[in-house]
């Protein structure tokens, strides 16, 4: 298992509100949603290489 790292980001309030609304609607955590988005990026990156 790889070591987990902490990431701190700054985003505009409007984007945070959107993320929180999505998390509430889907009953998911912000961490879970962001991890999924990063994994989707990994798929896109590997397709373009």
Describe this structure in words.
The protein is mostly helical and about 50 residues long. The chain has one domain (about 15-49). It is about 65% helix and about 0% strand. It is built from two helices and no strands. It has helices at about 15-25, 30-49. The mean pLDDT is about 90.
Keywords:
2 helices; 49 residues; mainly alpha; extended
Element-level helix/strand string = HH
Query: What number is the mean pLDDT?
Result: 92
Instruction: Count the E strands.
Output: 0
Poorly predicted parts: none
The number of helical runs is: 2
Roughly how many Å is the radius of gyration?
A: 13 Å
**Mass-distribution shape:** extended
Distance from N terminus to C terminus (CA atoms, Å) equals 26 Å
- What share of residues are in beta strands? under 5%
Total number of domains: 1
How does the major sheet shape up? none
| Portion of residues within helices | 55-70%
Query: Helices and strands: which structural class?
Result: mainly alpha
Write the layout of secondary structure elements.
Layout: H1 13-26, H2 30-48
Task: Compose a concise summary of this entry.
The chain has 49 residues and is mainly α. Helix content is 67%, strand content 0%. It has one domain.
């Amino acid at each position: 298992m790889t070591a987990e790292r902490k990431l701190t980001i700054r985003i505009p309030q409007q984007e945070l509100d959107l993320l929180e609304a999505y998390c509430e609607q889907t009953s998911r955590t912000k961490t879970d949603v962001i991890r999924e988005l990063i994994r989707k990026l990994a798929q896109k990156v590997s397709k373009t290489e």
